[in-house]
From TrEMBL:
Enzyme kind, highest EC tier: transferase
Histidine kinase domain mapped to chain residues: 167-382
Lineage: Bacteria, Pseudomonadati, Campylobacterota, Epsilonproteobacteria, Campylobacterales
Catalytic activity as recorded in UniProt: ATP + protein L-histidine = ADP + protein N-phospho-L-histidine
SUPFAM superfamilies noted in UniProt: ATPase domain of HSP90 chaperone/DNA topoisomerase II/histidine kinase, Homodimeric domain of signal transducing histidine kinase, PYP-like sensor domain (PAS domain)
Residues annotated as domain PAS: 15-85
Protein name: histidine kinase
Enzyme Commission (EC) number: 2.7.13.3
Pfam family, one: HATPase_c
Length: 384
């Protein structure tokens, strides 16, 4: 009996030593605490990590080794472990003997039979540093991109302004000429012997008409370029017509025909930023117009087709200017890509951002037998 007991005790001791050896080899801090959180045992890893010897640790607790703001949460964690049996991955900051702070993740497990707590401590300082660094780098990158995007928006607006002034110049040329001729007529009238008041009336009306037309043009343009961040319901056909109006005189001057074809049963009501949509469309139509003029296309045309494709409204803008080379098709939506000496290469990039990012649609380009085809596809779900 005595001998057997002795053997059992020896076995137990050697098991305990084995366990210690395993604990000491572990790559994490392992410690045993009493119900108050005071250390009863800590493996080598924990001692090294916290810079305390085992003798010193007997006088410390997992609460006293916490940074001040984590003292109370550590106490609560010990109590919770006792009540609930386990507390997993509780994060806190520990303070080593020399005052170094360590970000730690602790798991506590309560052993009822001995009223002790096993605590595993992992040093996650490096992980957190890595994560913080990653977060900082991502923030920096996002900020840089946002800035770039804002610059592009600004450039795009400047480019639009330039185009707008050019278009106004086109719209005004004819009425301005007329006004010039009328003014000369007035001098003639005042020099003649029989002053004709009827003719003066006619001239006055004509002048008012021209001036009204000119002021309407300015209104159209300034409405068009107003920045509005307010989403609203709009009829997409009306938007298309408003957009075309801005290049109407240019189309006439260049003998370019513009056709709008609408398939039966197309849903034209949309919800979103109408001005942005018109801007995107104008960029595309402007390009067609531009290429038709540059390539001196005889009987040039631009077609705008509305087709309902399941849940999607497809709006295709096509022309007969000869299209885009296969190589350039891959490039045209990239910012600053242009084949024009005086181009800026922002138009299509902005159109794509507006349609895809802001309207959840898609914008793509291809060629048909006559020229380029740009297709805007908008999901009908956008209609609310
Ligand atoms: N309808 C079209 N036909 C042929 N090429 C086109 C057409 N639309 C756009 N492109 C090509 O795409 C390029 C990029 O267009 P865009 O982004 O509007 O910039 P930009 O008009 O300043 O060149 C143009 O330079 C042109 O080469
Ligand atoms: Mg352009």
């Amino acid at each position: 009996m005595h001998l057997q007991l002795k053997k059992s005790l020896k076995d137990l001791r050697s098991k305990k030593e084995e366990l210690r050896a395993v604990f000491d080899l572990a790559g994490n801090g392992i410690s045993i605490l009493n119900e108050k959180g005071t250390f009863l045992y800590a493996n080598k890893f924990f001692q090294t990590m916290m810079e305390y010897t085992m003798e010193e640790l007997y006088n410390e607790s997992c609460i006293s080794l916490s940074s001040p703001e984590y003292a109370q949460p550590s106490k609560t964690a010990v109590q919770r472990a006792i009540q609930e049996g386990i507390v997993e991955r509780f994060r806190k900051i520990c303070v080593t003997k020399s005052g170094k702070q360590i970000n730690a993740s602790m798991s506590l497990s309560y052993i009822k039979s001995t009223n002790e707590i096993v605590m595993i401590t992992s040093d996650i300082t490096e992980d957190i540093k890595y994560q913080d660094d990653l977060k900082r780098r991502i923030n920096h990158e996002v900020k840089k991109r946002t800035q770039q995007y804002e610059i592009m928006c600004h450039q795009s607006r400047l480019a639009s302004m330039g185009e707008m002034i050019e278009a106004i110049a086109h719209q005004w040329r004819q009425p301005l000429n007329s006004l010039g001729i009328i003014t000369q007529g007035l001098r003639h009238l005042s020099n003649s012997e029989n002053f004709d008041f009827n003719l003066l009336n006619e001239i006055e009306n004509e002048m008012i008409e021209k001036i009204n037309f000119m002021s309407e043009t300015i209104d159209d343009f300034s409405n068009f370029f107003k920045i509005s961040k307010e989403k609203k319901y709009f009829n997409i056909l009306n938007s298309v017509k408003d957009t075309i109006k801005l290049v109407d005189i240019q189309l006439k001057n260049e003998n370019i025909t513009l056709n709008i074809n609408i398939e039966d049963g197309v849903n034209l009501e949309f919800y979103g930023l109408e001005n942005e949509f018109r801007q995107a469309l104008l960029n595309i139509v402007d390009n067609s117009l531009d290429v038709l003029i540059r390539r001196k296309q005889h009987e040039g045309f631009i077609n705008i087709d509305f087709v309902q494709n399941g849940n999607f409204l497809e709006l295709s803008i096509s022309d007969n200017a000869g299209g885009i080379s296969e190589k350039n098709l891959q490039e045209i939506f990239k910012p600053y890509f242009t084949t024009k000496e005086d181009g800026n290469g922002i138009g299509l990039y902005m159109s794509k951002v507006i349609i895809e990012k802001n309207m959840n649609g898609s914008l793509s380009a291809r060629n048909n037998e006559n020229g380029a085809v740009f297709t805007i596809s908008l999901k009908s779900e956008e209609q609310k």
